[in-house]
Write a structure and sequence with these properties.
Elements lengths: L3 H7 L5 H6 L8 E3 L5 E3 L1 H7 L6 E7 L9 H14 L4 E5 L4 H5 L7 E2 L2 E4 L1 H5 L5 H21 L6 E6 L3 E3 L9 E3 L10 E3 L1 E3 L4 H8 L3 H10 L1 E5 L4 E3 L6 H7 L7 E5 L4 E4 L14 H10 L2 E5 L4 H16 L5 E6 L1 H7 L12 H20 L4 E6 L6 H13 L3 E5 L1 H4 L5 H13 L14 H13 L3 E4 L1 H12 L7 E4 L19 E10 L4 E6 L18 E2 L5 E2 L3
Parallel strand pairs: 3-16, 3-17, 4-15, 4-16, 8-11, 17-18, 18-19, 20-22, 21-23
Antiparallel strand pairs: 1-2, 2-14, 5-6, 6-14, 7-12, 9-10, 12-13, 14-15, 22-23, 24-25
Helix pairs in contact: 4-17, 7-8, 7-10, 9-10, 13-14, 14-15
């Protein structure tokens, strides 16, 4: 059996100009990064912004398990299948972070015969967007510490510095550090921290900004610290905005690549959904909607995280209205939720399936609360049985959902035609009446309570004293009308990753709250969620290599 990287390396790619031409994008509107990658110019948006929008389809999933679900693979295969059925379709996806590539999860180019290419480029440095974001983030940190060193005219309280450094790698040793050690000229000694680049507010800002003007205004609103009087200090006050924007000048432009079957893919931005808002850039999504009849996008992790943030944050801010949601699951993952050990998932077990399918049920209910029709798809495995498929099919149809099997990993677009047919039928015959789950005017605590009870199924929310104090302070500063961005484990509907299925009788525990004023949301940290992941005992980096001819192996 061929590996993902072998399939990708053997693929015949079209020059990116040919991919662009299928969407009436002229060569003058491409900024080429080699033969197979390009950024779209600012001028292209001016040409297409008057076009009618296509249909928007969100792909999400049940809570991830070690058995795997294949959300990105499904998104890519669905787009290829829709293209095969004669629909002008475009993907709008996130870029991968280097952290998971070298950690445990691997890359984010899809899998099998449903991949975007060039796979190695995408999973490694791509067009440098994440490096630009990292540099802009750390420039702001350097300017902040330099301001303190050079007399501290803004009276920044070094005990209340909020801005953290970042890097695009999993490195637990950098979570809590001390900077400024050494001589007087080496800076002011203070505690500092690192987050992974995808958790930086600048990543969120880049993904939510419409254009350079919007980007600069958002950068200026970043709160980096509080002064001795307890007042916020912003990036604009540090005169950091112009230099940061200069670093992000190219990164703000969407990237165009292709699938194995040459469907266009705008891959841009990459915030994690467990610690950030989990969606690709607004700019890429809006551009795709002007270029194609149907746009397939995805949101990270399970629907309790990525889809909730897509629907409550991204759509609210950008004025997007999804027409359908595809909810991905596998028989194996549902049995895992039903208590079956990973080693026994290949054996038919209808009783465990019935116990675990409640996780799927909760996600269906959640999406329907937003007024968007749902199509459930199962990534098929050879160990699945017809009895298991029939049980799940009947379960979904009883809840008003279309249902289809997906075989895109093995067959590419051809294996997604059944799913594509159900999606087209849904788009044609079912009306989306999308609406966020809470209004802007709700208090922050009411918003958190709504997400916790309505989406997670919690009985309520508890706050650490510091979190409650921070939330009150944020509302006093005038940010109470912002949406909330919940940072929570992806493995469970609760904030305890060990509670599988559809847990009940639990409380969501909030340990910290802070405002991302530039991004335009309030981050709520729950449970033991970390904004700088660590590497596992045996990281994926152990198996990655490059030979004397420059061919990469072990990347997945």
């Amino acid at each position: 059996m061929k590996t993902d990287i072998q399939i990708a390396q053997e693929a015949t790619m079209k020059p990116v100009q040919q991919v662009a031409a299928a969407y009436a994008i002229e060569e003058e509107d491409l900024e080429l990064y080699g033969k197979y990658k390009a950024k779209l110019t600012d001028e292209l948006w001016q040409k297409v912004k008057g076009n009618r929008d296509g249909k928007l389809v969100l792909v999400t999933a049940i809570n991830p398990t070690p058995a795997g679900e294949g959300k990105t693979t499904t998104s890519i295969g669905l787009a290829d299948a829709l293209s095969r059925l004669g629909k002008k379709t475009m993907l709008a996806l996130r870029e991968p972070s280097l952290g998971p590539c070298f950690g445990i999860k691997g890359g984010a180019a899809g899998g099998g015969y449903a991949q975007v290419v060039p796979m190695e480029d995408l999973n490694l440095h791509f067009t440098g967007d994440f490096h630009a974001i990292t540099s802009a983030n750390n420039l702001l940190a350097a300017l902040l510490d330099n301001h303190i060193q050079q007399g501290n005219a803004l009276q920044i309280d070094t005990r209340q510095v909020l801005w953290k450094r970042c890097m695009d790698m999993n490195d637990r040793a950098l979570r809590n550090i001390v900077v400024g050690l050494g001589a007087k000229a080496d800076g002011v000694v203070r505690e500092d921290h690192f987050v992974i680049t995808v958790a930086s507010e600048i990543m969120a800002i880049l993904c939510l900004a419409n254009d350079m003007k919007d980007l600069k205004e958002r950068l200026g609103r970043i709160i980096v610290a509080y002064n001795y009087a307890g007042e916020p200090v912003t990036a604009a006050q540090l005169n950091a905005v112009g230099a940061m924007a200069a670093l992000l000048k190219d990164a703000i432009k969407p990237n165009l690549i292709q699938t194995l079957e040459h469907t266009g893919a705008l891959v841009h931005g990459g915030p994690f959904a467990n610690i950030a808002h989990g969606c690709n850039s607004v700019r890429a999504t809006k551009t795709a909607l002007k270029l194609a009849d149907i746009v397939v996008t995805e949101a990270g992790f399970g629907a309790d995280l990525g889809a909730e943030k897509f629907l409550d944050i991204k759509c609210r801010m950008a004025g997007l209205k999804p027409d359908a949601v595809v909810l991905v699951a596998t028989v194996r993952a549902l049995k895992y939720n039903g208590g079956v050990p990973k080693t026994e998932l290949g054996t038919e077990n209808l009783e465990a399936l019935d116990r675990g399918i409640v996780n799927l049920e909760k996600h269906i209910e959640n999406i329907q609360k937003y007024g968007v029709p749902v199509v459930v798809t199962l990534n098929s495995f050879t160990s699945d049985t017809e009895a298991e498929y029939e049980r799940i099919r009947r379960f979904c149809e009883e809840r008003g959902c279309e249902f289809a099997l997906s075989e895109v990993w093995a067959k590419g677009g051809e294996g997604g035609e059944a799913l594509a047919g159900k999606v087209l039928d849904t788009l044609e015959h079912k009306t989306s009446s999308y609406h966020p789950i809470y209004p802007d005017e709700m208090s922050l605590k009411e918003k958190v309570h709504t997400v916790a009870t309505e989406i997670y199924g919690a009985d309520g929310v508890s706050y650490a004293p510091a979190a409650a104090k921070s939330m009150a302070r944020i509302e006093e500063m005038g940010f109470g009308n912002l949406p909330v961005c919940m940072a929570k484990t992806q493995y469970s509907l609760s904030d305890d990753q060990n509670k599988l299925g559809r847990p009940s009788g639990f409380t969501i525990n909030v340990r910290d709250v802070y405002v991302s004023a530039g991004a335009g949301f309030v981050v709520v940290l729950t449970g033991a969620i970390m904004t700088m992941p660590g590497l596992p005992k045996k990281p994926a980096a152990d198996g990655i290599d490059v030979n004397d001819e420059g061919k990469i192996t072990g990347l997945f």
